[in-house]
Fold this sequence. Notes:
The protein is an alpha/beta fold. The protein contains 8 helices and 8 strands; from the N terminus they run H-H-H-E-H-H-E-H-H-E-E-E-E-H-E-E. It has helices spanning 12-18, 25-33, 36-39, 55-73, 79-91, 100-122, 128-141, 180-185, and strands spanning 46-48, 93-97, 142-146, 151-152, 161-167, 172-179, 199-200, 204-205. The strands form 2 sheets. The chain has a 4-stranded mixed sheet. Strands 5, 6, 7 and 8 form a 4-stranded antiparallel sheet that branches. Strand 3 (142-146) and strand 4 form a beta hairpin. Helix 5 runs parallel beside helix 7 and helix 6 packs antiparallel against helix 7. The protein is globular, with a radius of gyration of 17 Å.
Amino acid sequence: MNKPKxxxxxxxxxxxxxxxxxxxEREVNAMLDLVKHETERIDSRFLEPACGxxxxxAEILRRKLRVCRNFVEQGKNTQLEYEKNAVxxxxxxxxxxxxxxxxxxxxxxxxxxxxxxxxxxxxxSIKAExxxxxxxxLSKNIILGNALTYHRVDNPNEWIIISEWSLLGGGMMNRRxxxxxxxxxxxxxxxxxxxxxxKTFEPVYFLKLNSQSYGE
Length: 216
C-alpha cells in the first residue's frame, strides 16, 4: 500500500540524516504512466537506486502481475505458465536502499503483493516452492547498499552485486552476477547487462530458486 501524503516522511531525523521522503501514489502512477508500455512488459527490467520501502517497485509489480493475471483469465495460460511469468516479472525488478528497515519492508511488501495475487487466482493449489522462489529473488534483487558508493551497507568493503536473471527453455533460469559499479560505468545500449559478468551459475529450474541451489 502506498503511503498517503501525510505519511511521506517517517521522521524529521530520517529526513535530516538520509534525505528520506517518500513519493505518494499519485506521483508514482503519473511517472510510471510515462513508460506505461514498459511497466506492462513482464520481462522489462527496472532498477530503483533509492527504493525506500518500495512505492515505485510495488506499483511496477502490480502492473506486471495484472498482465500475468489477464493471460490466465483469458484462458491463455495455465497455473504453471502463470508461475513462470510471475517469477520472470519479479526477477526483473531491482532496488537498492540505504536503510535496513526499508529493505526488509520492501521485500515483505512485494512478497505480499505476489502472494495475494497468487492466492486469489489459484487458492489452495498454490505452491510453496513458487513462494520460496519469489522470496529468494527478492532477497537478491532488493539490496542493502549505497548506490552512490557502489558498496553494501552491511559490509562496506563488499561491492553491490546485481544478478541478471533470464528464462531459458524448459523453465530453467539463468543467473549471471555483475558488480554494480561496472554496470554504471559501462554503456550497453538498451540493456544494463553485458557479456562480462563477474560470476555465472548453472541454470536452475524456476521453481527451485533458493540459496541451496546456488551453494550460498
